[in-house]
Amino acid sequence: MLAKRFVVPLAVATVGTGAAVFGVLNADAAEVAGCAVTYTVTSQWNAGFTGDVKIRNTGASAIDGWTLGFAFPSGQKLASGWNGTWTQTGATVTVTDAGWNRSIPAGATVALGFNGTWAGGNAIPTGFTVNGVTCGASATAPGTAAPGGTATPTAAATPTRTAGASPTATRTSSAAPTATAKPIATAGRGPENCTDYAALVRGQYWVNNNVWGRADGAGNQCVWENGLSGDNLSWGTNWTWSGDTTKVKSYASAVLGWHWGWKATGTGLPVRLSAGKAVRANWNFAVTQKTSNIMNVSYDLWFHTTSNPDWQDQPTDEVMVWLYRSGGAGPVGTKQATVIVGGTTWDLYKGNIGWNVYSFVRTSNTTSADLNLTDFTNDLAGRGWLDKTKYLSSVQAGTEVFTGSGQLDTSAYSVKIS
202 and 186 in one domain? Predict the structure, then answer.
């Protein structure tokens, strides 16, 4: 099945440097006058934090156009936001719908988020309004979480991924409320984080709970990381998604480098293609399909013309390397050739979604790969499709899920640039 995709980039910004903080801080609003607001601090570090906000329509009729209002109680400052137009005057924060998410059906939820800075305290707001109606809130003050590896945190909420065969550019709010993260530890793995766009930083990598397409269905996704062994990251994700079988709901992934901003240091990226450096990626994983799934497991490489891209810099090219797929999932564009790269046979697809997308689809599934990803960019450069003056800014490895229920467990993932 050939797939097209659409991408809706959202604003993010770098707001501080320090130790990444793991854990979730919540304030669940009481349901008053037809609305309920959930405010979650998904991550916090020395000078900044990332917040997740969900508005639920508890009334009997749809909300057509919304404006959220609240006040930061301890001097916090807004740095950037997504899924709405964010402004701050003094302590007062106002968020207006983004247009595509203006309608909230009765019982439905719309999710939005932001990056902020703080100094001295990061108390949770206690009062929220939607269109001037007080929703009310009960708050839990931020606690202290154990820091992980050092990082330069930025927001991770920008959707990135493949849609299905018949996408539209219209997005609506999902009728199913998204889950608030409740870390759950199980034997042999780290605690689950089920917060949308949660970012788990570990060394030079971070695990992104990217659920950019959830508006096209219903369900949930969680991620966890089990730590580093040398340069090898162990991590996992589970999911349950229903809805449009032609549209991707999520792309949980381990990220090295850029993703509409930066979170970790020591990545070795960006690197100019003309430098001829090897990008050796090793990945061992297992897929558990609890139901029939339409999905893939793939690398995703991003490219820019600038040597230091930030959140506002759109990529010029994207290269995907599909290792595993099921249920008829297919890449954007049309098949151009069958090629041999790294001793393995791949079908090569080419498309464009505002930037060039090249997909190498393995002709037989594997759950173990040791590849020099430069071999793939060299193939494209040799065809005159990818200019070697461009910079590789990101190497991601994850699973795109259209529908189904399952789990991806990565026992070892590493990227070495030399």
Answer: yes
Residues 175, 120 within the same domain = no
CATH of the domain at 245: 2.60.120.180
Residues 105 and 168 in one domain: no
Estimate the share of the chain in helix, then strand, then coil, as percent rounded to the nearest 5.
Answer: 5, 50, 45
Tell how many helices (H) and how many strands (E) occur in the chain.
1, 28
Burial class (CB in 10 A: 0-12, 13-18, 19+), 233: buried
Residue at 328 is within a domain: yes
Q: Which residues contact 308 (CB under 8 A, 6 or more apart)?
A: 270
Residues 382 and 397: beta-carbon distance below 8 Å:
no
Q: Which of 93, 120, 144 is the last residue of a domain?
A: 144
Say yes or no: 99 and 121 in one domain.
yes
180 and 44 in one domain? no
For the chain, 418 residues long, give each residue's pLDDT as a single digit of tens: 333 333 322 233 322 322 222 233 334 333 335 899 999 887 777 677 888 888 999 888 999 999 999 999 999 998 777 778 889 999 999 999 988 788 999 888 888 888 788 888 889 998 899 999 898 654 443 443 332 332 333 333 333 333 333 332 222 233 333 333 334 434 467 899 999 889 999 999 999 999 988 888 999 999 999 999 999 999 999 999 999 998 899 999 999 999 988 988 899 999 999 999 999 999 999 999 999 999 999 999 999 999 999 888 899 999 999 999 999 999 989 999 999 999 999 999 999 988 999 999 999 999 999 999 999 999 999 999 999 999 999 999 999 999 999 999 999 999 999 9
Domain endpoint, select from 109, 144, 179 = 144
Asked, for residue 18, whether it belongs to a domain, the answer is no
Listed residue (32, 411, 94, 49) closest to 254, CA to CA? 411
What is the reported pTM? 0.61
Number of domains, the chain: 2
384, 312 contact by CB (below 8 A): no
Concatenated DSSP letters of 239-306: EEEEE-TTS--EEEEEEEE-SSS---S-----EEGGG---EEEEEEEEEEESS--EEEEEEEEEEESS
Instruction: Name the H helices within 340-412.
Output: 374-382
Check whether residue 111 and residue 194 sit in a common domain: no
Q: Which domain holds residue 103?
A: 24-144
Are residues 314 and 354 in contact, defined by beta-carbon separation less than 8 angstroms? yes
CATH of the domain at 35: 2.60.40.290
